[in-house]
Amino acid sequence: MTITVHYLNNSRAQRILWLLEELEIPYEVVRYERVNVLAPPEFFKVHPLGKSPVIVDGDLTIAESGAIVEYLIAKYGAGKLQPIESGSLDNLYFSHYTEGTLMPLLVWRLILTITPGRFPFIVRPIARGICNTLVTRMIDNRLAQNRDLIEDHLKKYPGGWFAGGSEPTAADFLMIFPMEIFASHTHIPVPESFEVYVKMVHDRPAYKRALEKGGSYAYAKP
Ligand SMILES: N[C@@H](CCC(=O)N[C@@H](CS)C(=O)NCC(=O)O)C(=O)O
């Protein structure tokens, strides 16, 4: 049976395509385009929260990318993409840290960046002032702390994966999306190790196949 990936453009769903390609599992992509940044109404027919990604595997509909990554590796991994013993805690930590801590900051930054444009023209400068202050005081300082944490961690496994070892693990499939955003779409300066990491992923044949399958994706070049 073929797995279906419900894929919103420029979304976390890209990480699932990369994983499926690494696992060499057949799958099909149903692509949706955002409407004013949000998922279109059709996405709610797939899952009540209308958030991407969602996969359908036989009778199962699974949302939440961390759950999807764990499910796919457990069911179809056949021992592949598992952390080495010394990296298992890092794999656990970064698998949860991505959506628990890092992504909310990046999402709030996005919300505060686009919010002023939604206000009537006359009050837009005030809205922009408030939102910029919130970004500076509440988000960017925390993002800088997160960047430093990631940088220190990558130094532990230079040129490698979040859990060490010779293959990506769940942590990498989850971390690639914020790493792509960090490397290209925030104003926080990032160290070279971030770009090296993202390039290492983007150079993988499986990632390239995933890009072809998913269609245009703002955070990676085909
Ligand atoms: N924690 C969830 C987050 C899902 C999520 O927010 N996805 C975004 C795309 S990256 C989305 O669907 N946004 C559209 C919307 O909120 O309408 C996960 O990891 O799957």
From TrEMBL:
Alphabetized GO MF terms: glutathione peroxidase activity; glutathione transferase activity
InterPro entries, A to Z: Glutathione-S-Trfase_C_sf, Glutathione_S-Trfase, Glutathione_S-Trfase_N, Thioredoxin-like_sf
Reactions performed catalytically: RX + glutathione = an S-substituted glutathione + a halide anion + H(+)
Domain GST N-terminal: 1-80
Keywords, in A-Z order: Transferase
Coiled coil: none
EC number(s) reported in the record: 2.5.1.18
Example of a GO cellular component annotation carried by this entry: cytoplasm
CDD domains: GST_N_GTT1_like
UniProt cross-references to PANTHER family, sorted A to Z: GLUTATHIONE S-TRANSFERASE 1, GLUTATHIONE S-TRANSFERASE-RELATED
Family as reported in the entry's similarity comment: Belongs to the GST superfamily.
The protein's name in its UniProt record: glutathione transferase
